[in-house]
Amino acid sequence: MADTASECSWAFEVKQHFASSKIRQDTFDKLLRHAYDDAKSVDRGEADDRVGCLIMVPGETALEDPQHTHHFDTLCSSSADFAFRVGGGISGVWLAFKVVD
Questions:
Q1: Hey, which of 3, 35, 87, 98 would disulfide with 15, CB 3.0 to 4.6 Å?
Q2: pLDDT band for position 62 (50/70/90)?
Q3: How far apart are CA 28 and CA 8, in angstroms?
Q4: Cα-based torsion angle of the residue sequence 2, 83, 93, 39 in order, rounded to the nearest 10 degrees
Q5: Cα(55)–Cα(32) distance, rounded to whole angstroms?
Q6: Is the pLDDT of residue 65 over 90?
């Protein structure tokens, strides 16, 4: 992805996970780390910044439950450099990003 006006570019490595309502922090961290490691493998000359991204989709048991929403928010805020909860459809999804140093 590139912004021609600022001449900045980003390379994203994206992984998707259909998460149970009881996903543990270490499982989340491992999944995000996998995306990060793949982003780290992208040649530095291909983009100004390399970013690992985990798209976390709640399983049916976690749909629209405020307790599960809080749990997923906490997972993201504990490990990601930045994260977003995107609403819409049957439930929201979470996008967690880890920028390669």
A1: 35
A2: low
A3: 29
A4: 50
A5: 9
A6: no
